[in-house]
Amino acid sequence: MKIISGGVCAAQGFTANGIHCGIRKNRVKRDLALIYSSVPASAAAVYTLNLVKGAPITVTKAHLLGGIAQAAICNSGNANTCNYNGIEIAEETCSILSAELGIPADNIIVASTGVIGELMDIAPFRSGIPSLVAGLSADGSDSAAEGIMTTDTVKKEIAIEFTLGGKTCRMGGIAKGSGMIHPNMATMLVFITTDAAISPAMLQKALSGDVKSTFNMLSVDGDTSTNDMVSVMANGLAGNEIITDEGEDFTAFMAALNTVTVNLCRMIAADGEGATKMLECIVSGAYDIDTARTVAKSVVCSSLVKAAMFGADANWGRILCAIGYSGADVDVSKVDVSFRSAGGMVTLCKNGSGVPFSEEEAKAVLLEKEIEVLVSIGDGDISAKAWGCDLTYDYVKINGDYRT
Amino acid sequence: MKIISGGVCAAQGFTANGIHCGIRKNRVKRDLALIYSSVPASAAAVYTLNLVKGAPITVTKAHLLGGIAQAAICNSGNANTCNYNGIEIAEETCSILSAELGIPADNIIVASTGVIGELMDIAPFRSGIPSLVAGLSADGSDSAAEGIMTTDTVKKEIAIEFTLGGKTCRMGGIAKGSGMIHPNMATMLVFITTDAAISPAMLQKALSGDVKSTFNMLSVDGDTSTNDMVSVMANGLAGNEIITDEGEDFTAFMAALNTVTVNLCRMIAADGEGATKMLECIVSGAYDIDTARTVAKSVVCSSLVKAAMFGADANWGRILCAIGYSGADVDVSKVDVSFRSAGGMVTLCKNGSGVPFSEEEAKAVLLEKEIEVLVSIGDGDISAKAWGCDLTYDYVKINGDYRT
Lengths: 404, 404
Fold this sequence. Notes:
Two copies of one chain form a homodimer.
Chain A: E1 2-4, E2 14-19, E3 32-47, H1 55-63, E4 68-76, H2 86-101, E5 108-113, H3 123-134, H4 141-147, E6 156-164, E7 167-176, E8 189-194, H5 200-213, E9 229-234, H6 248-270, E10 278-286, H7 289-301, H8 303-310, H9 317-324, E11 336-341, E12 344-350, E13 353-354, H10 359-366, E14 370-376, E15 382-389, H11 393-400
Parallel strand pairs in A: 4-5, 8-9, 10-14
Antiparallel strand pairs in A: 1-6, 2-3, 3-4, 3-9, 6-7, 7-8, 10-15, 11-12, 11-14, 12-13
Helix pairs in contact in A: 1-2, 2-3, 5-6
């Protein structure tokens, strides 16, 4: 398996584009993105569990009942959520795109991201979609990745090459996500493409299994968005024997998918709103996976841990505190905690009590951009990871005045 | 019922004091507080449910098994938590105080608040307790309230006068709490005194019932502390007929207790770390109390709602989002949302969708110091309140470098 360039256009048959069509009125930034497969693809998606759901979530769910998609369209600047006519707008978007691409409307994945509760105007879609389609290109992943950004400061793109049954396959993804990041059984807006051949059912199985250890273990601010969605389109152009059940090829496909999703998770965490640091909490020694995940996520979600990381303050008691209220059944007298980064490693707590450490060494570890919080529970041999970021002045600044 | 002065010394027989004994080395601030009743009192307490518990919690729980206490001692500057010898230190503190006051050590409530995981030295207690006791006075509530403060910017004190069976009773409380505030079935450090006569069992019943709608509905940052505790001492000197079961007097006592605890909750929320505004979410129209409480607490806990309040930004979609992920079973198409304050009232959402509103009017409402978020669910007639505060630059500043 190797990392390659090309993002969502790395896999055969996929083109993409991103344009400014005018959904964002206050600045000229690409606000509409399209990904297109030259042939119909197996498709799978997972969605937010927030009871308040964006209208595009409802429309996409209905479209993917057949497990087939050929295009994904996504706007930024307006979440099309809590609007009385949201479903109508999302359906009309698909209908306009369907006519332009010459594909059935229900083979289209539709998504929106931005402010909740502002009416969405169909006019920019109507005027923009023809040039969006005309500009589709194999070099278009970058502009599509830009088109879905909101408060993101960098575009998030990844592609890999891997082998299934002797055939070279490719998989790529783009993601947006910076605030309102605390996916629950689903995730942020992520679009993944691959030319591997896999049945819709197995594709859904692979995706649903993967998100438990990837996007569901990611938090920027504890707020589960109303518009979270990850979708995958697999168009089969790599020519591998189609995956229709578990086995060696499915395992290889899962490994490829996990490489793409973990990379995107890390990119989203590192670009959390206002973040200066990416946090990875690695919990080991748990007796089951739920315990390991619950503890890891509680640590990366703690406002106090996040603020301490911003200040490079080795206030490890806050980590013990977050483990203690996580809800996991942990014997705190067996817990060890260390920090690790490019700046070194320092152990702060053994068996639930503090041990002497050098404040200077701890500072050197915590001043790095990527910090690992290592928590050992001492009850078994199961591990889990969670990703987050620090809590900074800029998070408050960005979110104190998001709409204006 | 009326509000009076005197704090924890308002009730007959109670004296208090607070001194600087040297637990805080870096600044001269009172760091040790004592509350004393001239006669043994019925006592009750509720404690944090964090699995990581401060050593004083363990010691106090054991002491209150008999339902009697005569003194409460509390230091700030060190939480005495995650220390190998924490229990020993807490017990020695009680033993020194027991000798000085001439009361049994197990009639003492002991509490600590401050940094987790730093070894606690018994020396400042040993040298400080004699002058702490010598200075006990009926005017001492202020200095005791100061003695328990950590990042608090104001001391939190309240006292009321009420009547039980024709006898005038008094009740007062002090509280500390600013960060790591997200009590779970228990609360922050709160000490309440009353001269009402009530059995230990009924006192515990009153307190355990009250916290469900008061301290458990309070959040500053989502982090449940390891040292949370509310205790009440009722010494009976008011001379009312002792309350030993439910009835009119118990109801009157519960109302008095609720007045004290709601006032302290509001003070803690308003003085949340870095806070510029107090938020009160009032959920009405729920079909049961759990739903109303879950929704109210989810709204005041949302980092995005809190940051929007800091910016006086009427970004009501974030409130819908927080309701949607709260876990409560709510029909979002029936939800209405309004903001209300001394600056007026503005409705932003009816039946789950946005309604036109004046940004100028909304700004006027949100620029006030106390903001009510009114959420109507439309499913019944049960209400609940939760308290919180805004998320500000100063929260990050305070917690980026708490220890130094």
